[in-house]
Design a protein that fits this description.
The protein is mostly helical. 73% of the residues lie in helices and 0% in strands.
């Protein structure tokens, strides 16, 4: 019974993070669903083998590894249809609440462009960026989860930000009526 309680706790805590991260990495809802389900199965299979206090690192590492496996198996990944992540748009538009339809449309368009730019980042930069900026993980957690030195995490994050800045410079804030 104790294992079942631990499992339910972990699923409640991490299911959305697993899915969101998978969606950012794989750019496909069905694959993200599959990875999320596979991670949940692996959590259950290993529930007594890892420390619940270190569960976040184990779960993100497992999720990342499964995403990488999926990316390697794909042959037409670049041609796949891009799916907009509502989580990102909702988060962005909540920070810019307005009744003005022009502003609402503008913010949704910007959110979509940012999301697309994140998706175009190389896999190593995208994974670090998503974990830090979207999943709000610390450098040390990302380092453990991805088996990277902390300095590499910092460098990848810096490179990701610079690439996004360069790509999105034409969308710098302007005066909006």
């Amino acid at each position: 019974m104790f294992a079942e309680q631990r499992y339910r706790f972990l699923i409640k805590q991490y299911k959305n993070k697993i899915y969101t991260y998978s969606l950012y990495m794989l750019k496909n809802r069905m694959d993200a669903d599959d990875v999320t389900q596979e991670v949940m199965i692996r959590i259950w299979q290993n529930i007594d083998k890892f420390n619940i206090l270190a569960a976040k690192t184990w779960i993100i590492k497992t999720t990342n590894n499964l995403c990488i496996d999926y990316l390697r198996k794909r042959t037409v990944a670049v041609n796949r249809e891009f799916v907009i992540d509502e989580f990102f748009e909702d988060t962005y538009s909540k920070n810019h609440n307005s009744e003005n339809p022009y502003l609402i449309t503008h913010f949704k368009m910007i959110a979509s462009k940012v999301k697309e730019a994140i998706q175009r980042l190389p896999e190593n930069l995208r994974s670090v960026f998503v974990l830090y900026e979207i999943e709000e993980m610390k450098y040390k957690e990302i380092s453990k989860a991805l088996d990277l030195p902390i300095n590499s995490v910092k460098v990848y994050l810096l490179r990701a930000r610079k690439k996004l800045q360069e790509e999105l410079k034409e969308y710098e804030p302007q005066e909006i009526i």
